[in-house]
Design goal:
By secondary structure, this protein is α+β, with helices and mostly antiparallel strands. It is built from 3 helices and 5 strands; from the N terminus they run αβββαββα. The chain has one domain. 37% of the residues lie in helices and 28% in strands. Strand 4 and strand 5 (99-110) form a beta hairpin.
């Protein structure tokens, strides 16, 4: 009888913890670099795209990351908890100018607080830098106004 109670309680706790998480998706878009074996990877989380936006992945210093292959990029994403779902290739152009764009769909379970391992893109870094500069400028204007009083 105790085993049944423990099993039911465990299932209840598992269902409760699973409901606090949701599955999110992202798409890696890999393009071969010209005259190189490396690939440049852009990330699509479903975010709003700006016309001149840059969704390439960057490291902690804001430098665009290059990967040896799409598998190298997937290994990196795997360390952040992302799991492979599906992949396909789209060939752009024709003849000698043709190139492949690799699309890899990934998923991850995240809690209510969002993704603790959010990936930075060049556009996100640029937006954060602009916001920080605007905040500094606003603080300087406010401080200079206080000095004049």
């Amino acid at each position: 009888m105790n085993r049944i109670v423990i099993i039911v309680a465990s299932l209840f706790l598992f269902a409760l913890s699973a409901s606090a998480q949701s599955k999110v998706y992202c798409e890696l878009l890999g393009t071969q670099k010209f005259l190189s074996t490396k690939v440049t990877v852009s990330v699509d989380f479903g975010q709003e795209r700006k016309f001149f936006g840059d969704n390439r992945m960057v490291d902690a210093d804001g430098k665009v990351q290059e990967f040896n292959s799409m598998v190298d990029a997937m290994n990196y994403m795997g360390t952040l908890g992302w799991e492979f779902e599906q992949a396909y290739v789209v060939t752009v152009g024709s003849g000698a100018g043709a190139s492949n764009v690799y699309h890899w769909l990934l998923s991850k379970f995240v809690g209510e607080g969002g993704d603790p391992n959010a990936i930075k893109t060049k556009q996100i870094i640029n937006d954060e830098e602009r916001a920080a500069a605007a905040k500094i400028q606003e603080e300087a204007v406010t401080e200079s106004g206080n000095l004049l009083e």
